[in-house]
């Protein structure tokens, strides 16, 4: 690559993993949340992610997803080039997924700058997001691993935080800062302090980095994982690809990219952050879906589903219907009803995060047919 514009070296990667258990029974192992339209926009989450990124990286978008999702992803992103659809035989957490993408891209061209953006996030306005990515790419070109942090709208205990350090002077990135540290999900009192200080951002899991630098840190902290990914990448797009992937992938350790790369790199002074001044939602539960669908409110009730038949009187909350069964709600507040062909969920918005526990209990009982 001879262009002096860092954006010409930019490749976008969309890790599309995770079941989204807090959105059960809508989100399942065979149809996770990124394959659904959860915003009423008419577009699935992964398709929206692709459309945000492709103007920044035309014909340079890679998706890493599970083998069982190959057909669905291909239908939703028919523009995807064959070598850019990376299929995991089994889930191995984010360090393996993102690390494999980095290793494959490094084989193609070691000067590539890659950006990793989850498939299941809702972001607006898109131009503001794209401006932040451009700043992140310019910062990465100066030799940093870069994260895009989200300016908090409230003191959430559900997200990790990034503590901003000093300004980082780099051409093309007027808002860049050094990262002082990554902080785990805090207690409420601590979250209050973080937001009040103005020096902390939500960690949205967005990373932009030169592939060589990312792999260098991965080799230092997780040498076994790095070695395995290097073997797979060396065989990519050759006759040995499938055999090597099947042989090596099951042996890889499971670890999140935050622990394997971001946190150690930040401690070494190799991480910068671009504050993202746009709205961001990871659609973590049904309360989030209600927030994201204000246009569908019917007298306080959010109703989602083409087949939905809902009667509501003196009630508030959300109904997600995948059947044509009538759902009648009378005198209930903040209720969550999710009606599918083989499972019915009833809870309220304050307990929406606890759906994950129900999924775990069903798994322990062996009721895998509904998971």
Report on the structure:
It is a single chain. The strands form four sheets. Strands 6-9-7-8-10 form a five-stranded mixed barrel, surrounded by four helices. It has a five-stranded mixed beta sheet with strand order 12-13-15-17-18, covered by helices on one side. It has a two-stranded antiparallel sheet with strand order 5-11. The chain folds into two domains: 6-281, Spore Coat Polysaccharide Biosynthesis Protein SpsA, Chain A (Alpha-Beta Complex), CATH 3.90.550.10; 294-370, no CATH class. The protein contains eleven helices and 18 strands. The N and C termini lie far apart (46 Å). Strand 12 and strand 13 (301-304) form a beta hairpin. The protein is of the alpha/beta class and 371 residues long.
The side-by-side strand order for the widest beta sheet comes to 6-9-7-8-10
Judging by the overall fold, what is the CATH architecture of the largest domain?
Alpha-Beta Complex
Q: Classify the beta-strand content into a percent band.
A: 25-35%
> Taking all residues together, what is the mean pLDDT?
91
How many distinct helices?
11
Main β-sheet description: 5 strands, mixed, barrel
What is the N-to-C order of secondary-structure elements (H for helix, E for strand)?
A: EHEHEHEEHEEEHEHHHHEEHEEEEEEEH
User: Which homologous superfamily in CATH is the superfamily of the largest domain?
Assistant: Spore Coat Polysaccharide Biosynthesis Protein SpsA, Chain A
Name the poorly predicted regions: none
What CATH calls the topology of the largest domain is: Spore Coat Polysaccharide Biosynthesis Protein SpsA, Chain A
- When the domains are counted, the total is 2
Q: What is the 3D shape?
A: globular
Structural class: alpha/beta
CATH class categorisation of the largest domain: Alpha Beta
Number of strands: 18
Radius of gyration, whole Å: 21 Å
